[in-house]
């Protein structure tokens, strides 16, 4: 009964905070655009949210591994809710710096929350449940992604930014209440005489020393070097390829979300049958296939082309989800609980950093050569990643305490 209560409280709390974060993330960019009239200013909102993870990540992982994860998560959520109160005084373009400041600190706290969330998950659930729980959370999260943009934008238009902020604060308060219901015995690393930098980098050292995680990290990094190209390329596919408006990208996002739901529902069963590494490799192949279909299907003013491109984006959603869920499960199964926060933070720092650079490079590349070559590069990097994962399969290495 206790384990069931813990599991339910954890899942509902995680989904609540995820919903609130997504609503604010969408609405904040639109709000800044309305206040300033500048697309660039709106884009900076997303930069200030993501950037702290690359700086705070290692320290966040150390904090999560040093203190009880449940209380770290509750504290980070409480601070996030209090922080959002600072947005109530924003009324014009001259106040946008306050939005940036709040979003930047909010992103840093989100990095701490993410590491604590993953660490707590490995305590609440048994190792054989990791794949199913990760798949469930991914499926529901992607399902929310289909409606959250409408909720966030709609709430902003109908009731204003203050209503969006209030909703986000409310989700944090409810989530904190649910996390307080969780009762678990947590093990965390005791203080050591080592320098804090040495302790913070323990997650990186574990990844390097663990063949399975090292293989996954290299392969996913290769893919992320190009996958960010899609952020700009899909606008070019919609406008230059299909001769549609830029807003049509929203249709692609919706179909990718459908694919992600399918992938999330299938991943746990696939991992049970073929393991995390082969599931990740299958995800890579599916990303390559979906990207190729998008490229082949582009033809102006063609209904069949539209169907083909949307089919390709569904496969992209399936592939990315297979890859990410299998990577997360492999991390949880191959990492001692005392290092879980630092290993998760290390992966996030690497992946977010590479993807941010990829997005920036993709914007310039698409402007110079169009969408064809960037998408071809995505296909090639996905195939290279598949080879890196599949040329020799290391045995699963369970975490050792």
Automatic annotation (TrEMBL):
Q: Which residues cross the membrane?
A: 7-32, 44-64, 71-93, 99-120, 132-151, 157-182, 216-239, 245-268, 280-298, 304-325, 345-367, 373-391
Tell me yes or no: is Protein transport among this UniProt entry's keywords: no
Where is the protein localized?
Cell membrane
Which UniProt keywords are present, listed alphabetically?
Cell membrane, Membrane, Transmembrane, Transmembrane helix
Chief subcellular location equals membrane
Which InterPro entries has this protein been placed in?
MFS, MFS_dom, MFS_trans_sf
Which CDD domains does this one have?
MFS_MefA_like
UniProt entry tagged with the keyword Transmembrane: yes
Classify the protein's membrane topology as the record does. Multi-pass membrane protein
State the protein's name: MFS transporter
Q: Which SUPFAM superfamilies match?
A: MFS general substrate transporter
| Major facilitator superfamily (MFS) profile domain span | 6-397
């Amino acid at each position: 009964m206790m384990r069931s209560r813990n599991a339910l409280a954890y899942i509902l709390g995680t989904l609540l905070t995820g919903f609130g974060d997504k609503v604010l993330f969408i609405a904040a960019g639109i709000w800044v655009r309305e206040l300033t009239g500048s697309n660039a200013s709106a884009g900076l909102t997303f930069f200030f949210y993501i950037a702290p993870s690359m700086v705070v990540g290692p320290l966040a992982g150390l904090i999560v591994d040093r203190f009880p994860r449940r209380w770290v998560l509750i504290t980070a959520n409480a601070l996030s809710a209090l922080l959002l109160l600072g947005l109530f005084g924003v009324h014009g373009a001259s106040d946008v710096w306050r939005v940036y400041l709040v979003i930047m600190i909010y992103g840093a706290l989100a990095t701490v929350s993410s590491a604590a969330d993953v660490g707590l998950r490995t305590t609440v659930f048994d190792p054989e449940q990791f794949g199913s729980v990760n798949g469930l959370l991914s499926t529901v999260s992607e399902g929310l992604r289909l409606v959250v943009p409408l909720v966030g934008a709609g709430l902003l238009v109908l009731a204003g930014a203050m209503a969006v902020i209030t909703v986000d604060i409310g989700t944090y308060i409810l989530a904190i209440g649910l996390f307080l219901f969780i009762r678990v015995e947590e093990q965390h690393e005791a203080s050591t005489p080592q320098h804090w930098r040495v302790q913070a980098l323990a997650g990186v050292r574990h990844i390097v020393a663990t063949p399975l995680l090292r293989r996954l990290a290299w392969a996913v990094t290769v893919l992320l070097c190009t996958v960010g190209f899609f952020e700009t390329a899909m606008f070019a596919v919609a406008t230059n390829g299909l001769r549609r408006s830029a807003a049509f990208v929203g249709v692609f996002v919706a179909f990718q979300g459908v694919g992600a739901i399918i992938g999330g529902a299938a991943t746990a069963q696939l991992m049970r049958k073929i393991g995390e590494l082969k599931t990740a490799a299958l995800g890579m192949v599916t990303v390559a296939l979906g990207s190729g279909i998008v490229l082949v299907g582009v033809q102006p003013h063609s209904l069949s082309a539209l169907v083909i491109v949307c089919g390709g984006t569904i496969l992209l959603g399936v592939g990315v989800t297979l890859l990410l869920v299998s990577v997360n499960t492999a991390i949880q199964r191959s990492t001692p609980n005392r290092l879980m926060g630092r290993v998760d933070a290390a992966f996030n720092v690497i992946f977010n950093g590479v993807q941010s650079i990829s997005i920036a490079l993709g914007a310039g590349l698409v402007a110079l050569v169009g969408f064809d070559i960037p998408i071809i590069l995505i296909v090639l990097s996905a195939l290279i990643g598949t080879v890196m994962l599949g040329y020799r399969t290391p045995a699963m290495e369970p975490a050792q305490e």
